[in-house]
Q: What sequence folds into this?
């Protein structure tokens, strides 16, 4: 996880966390993916779904953001 974004969500108000989730979810949608979150005993988990059936789980929203950034075309190279 070297260089991965790992925000301390425990210090963030619930409404701010939900707003951040909505922004990241919209980015996923623009890439043709679906993002869902689920609550577990340690907080939230985030799951990216591909139309092909591929699924990836993440313990932090920042890791989802990093993954989505890796899927975006470089600036100036629209697909």
A:
């Amino acid at each position: 996880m070297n260089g991965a974004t790992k925000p301390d969500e425990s210090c963030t108000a619930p409404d701010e966390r939900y707003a951040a989730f909505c922004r990241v979810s919209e980015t996923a949608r623009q890439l043709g993916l679906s993002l869902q979150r689920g609550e577990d005993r340690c907080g939230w988990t985030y799951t990216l779904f591909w139309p092909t059936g591929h699924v990836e789980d993440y313990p932090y929203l920042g890791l989802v953001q990093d993954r989505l950034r890796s899927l975006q075309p470089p600036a100036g190279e629209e697909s």
About this structure: The longest strand covers residues 34-40.
